[in-house]
Amino acid sequence: MKFRGKILDIACLNHFTRVITTISKLTKTCVLRLTPDNLFFVLSGKVANGGVSMWCELSQANFFDEYQMEGVSPEDNEICLEVTPENLSRALKTLQNAKAVKVKLTKKHCPCLTIAAELPTLSSINRVVTHDVPVDVIPRRLWNEFKEPSMPDFDVSIYLPPLKTLKNIVDRMKNLSNFLVMEANLSGEMNLKIETDLVSVTTHFKDLGNPPWGDEASQDGGPSQSRDPEDMAQARVDIRKLQQFLMGQQVNPSKAMCNIVHERVVHLILLHEDVSLQYFIPAVA
Amino acid sequence: MDCVVTGGNVKVLAKAIHSLSRIGDELYVEPQEDGLALRSVNSSRSAYACFLFAPLFFSRYTVHSGHTFRCKMAIKSVQAVFRSLASLEKTVEKCHIELDDQNNRLTFTLHCKHGLMKTHNLSFQDSESLQAVFDKDSYANVFRSNPRLLVDTVMHFPPSLEEVTVSVSDERMWVRNHVEEEGDQSKAMLTELCLASDEFDHFAVQAHNSVTFCLKELRGLLVFAESTGLPMSMYFDEPGSPVVLSVTDSVLEGNFVLATLSDDSNHRKKNNSRGAHTLPPPPPDDFMNDDIDSYLIAMDTSVAPGPSATGPPTPQLADSICSKQTAAASHRTRLHSEEEEEDKTTDSGRPPNKKFCSLFFGSVLPPSPQMSTQPVSSQQVLASDSEDDVQ
């Protein structure tokens, strides 16, 4: 197993740092899957994570100037590591003015992702910083837990309003209740509701638009097409999970979407050119 | 005592008090002939800090000669006088510090803009002189740099980190985080920074040592050094003997004396660091040297070895499989740590000694003006407080 990548461009470094910082806000630990073309940050929906799962996909070519990897074997040309994104984020944040940053898999006291950077100085010799972030190598028999989650057979798919607006509303609602109902229909309307014994609050959004998913998404002959456009699909979710997702946002997505499987799951998707982040929040009864 | 500080010096004084507050809970105030000394020591007496402001720092400075006065007070209450550093610079025109003999109060009066006057009457306790003895001239390793260099260095370490280890060779200084428990090591992130000697204004190394000391106090003095723009010096000898950090100007001097981890526990650390850094001397252009093979990680063998080994592996990969098959059969990627463990067992005869040596012992110091802030050349280490906890 070998991995080595090098980032020279400061904008790429910056972007990479933002993505990892966003992930670090979502989860304490996650799995980093390295393939010849992509990096994936994966959180599988275990009960310990509150049932939340995450899938973040980066194309290596958009970040790395050099990227070499050799997986476990030629057939399974992948590397699977358990990482603490917080550590990676902290290491990268201090290197924002670096001339070059290298990320490599090393064997020190334990397997590490070593982040080494060359910092500019006034002297003739550059300052070199290395951060050894301990990782766990995940054995191949466990890899199947970290496959891309299949797109749920959603009832409604809708574009999200500006995330900042959403965040402000969810932050307020958090003070009133622990659970929030997200509902949306196929005519571009979405509501955020909380209901307690004392108060009911609903925020209405309209004209959000529904993403055209084409044939491949309308599964089984497309239940969503035969659906009444006014009919709401809803899911009741833990408000903290949603808040966490909105709070850590540093990616500035060009597209933000939400798919709702009625009373099952909320599937949030952020797209930004080369990065896609998917986040699944299970519905609670 | 009666002294007046004006203009930008008020902020300097305030910054000094703030950085002293990083050390201990009490501020020791001693007006001397050669200036006003402000000192602090931490509860475990492993860190001591002293600022001496020369009479020229003040626009008026008078002490009653022949009548020595020393006191200590809660540093929080003094900090409260200079609470907002930002507004201090804009609003305060002068600060008047006066001893109110009759009421036994130390009075701080801030004269602000628009004729506003703020008076703080602070109570105090009498105290003995507090003095750590160190001789900066006797240290083997001396460094001086712009505070920016050290600020940029400590920035790479997390705020929660307690101790850093500094190692030096003739041309380089390495700073890395000190991880205490061996058990923690697998989880802790290790950070290391290498500074070249020509980044320093002055870089004199006689002993290739590494010392471990607390980061908190260093950060404290750095806040002061950075705001005043004064170069910062660092002096150290060997593990166990204190490291001295200092800033000097024509009108003020600040010295922070910090205990370092003693040799016993540091010995192994030092060996480790030798192994890690000096034995294979890092080539200057280490960063650019990229032999990817050196970053080989043991194969994960949890899948039945048959198919992967009999597959058509590249020559390199076959190599790696052969070399790892024996060692990493059951424990993945533990090869290296086993070697380490062996080292440890041979070493473990020693009791684990992770304590910082206390630098200061209680004792009463004759009130002699030379003793107070001048470095004293004797090896005896003195300091005093009300309690007599001789080591």
Give the structure's gist in a few sentences:
The complex is a heterodimer of chains A (285) and B (391). Chain A is of the alpha+beta class and 285 residues long. Chain A is built from 5 helices and 18 strands.
Walk me through what this model shows.
- The complex is a heterodimer of chains A (285) and B (391).
- Chain A has five helices and 18 strands.
- In chain A, a hairpin with a 3-residue loop joins strand 2 and strand 3 (38-43).
- In chain A, helix 1 runs antiparallel to helix 2 (85-93) and helix 3 (163-174) packs antiparallel against helix 5 (239-247).
- With 285 residues, chain A is α+β, with helices and mostly antiparallel strands.
- The model of chain A is unreliable at 217-223 (pLDDT under 50).
- Chain A has helices at 10-26, 85-93, 163-174, 214-217, 239-247, and strands at residues 2-7, 30-34, 38-43, 53-59, 66-70, 79-83, 100-107, 111-119, 127-134, 136-137, 156-159, 179-184, 190-195, 200-205, 233-238, 255-261, 265-272, 275-282.
- Chain B has a domain at 136-321: Proliferating Cell Nuclear Antigen, CATH 3.70.10.
- Chain B has a ten-stranded antiparallel β-sheet with strand order 10-6-2-3-4-19-18-17-11-15. A five-stranded antiparallel β-sheet of chain B has the order 5-1-7-8-9.
- In chain B, a hairpin with a 6-residue loop joins strand 17 (232-236) and strand 18.
- In chain B, helix 1 (8-20) packs antiparallel against helix 5 (215-228).
- The radius of gyration of chain B is 26 Å and the shape is elongated.
- Mean pLDDT of chain B is 73; it is low at 265-286, 288-354 and 360-391.
- The chains are: A alpha+beta (285), B alpha+beta (391).
- At the A-B interface, strand 1, helix 2, strand 7, strand 8 and strand 9 of A face strand 14 and helix 9 of B.
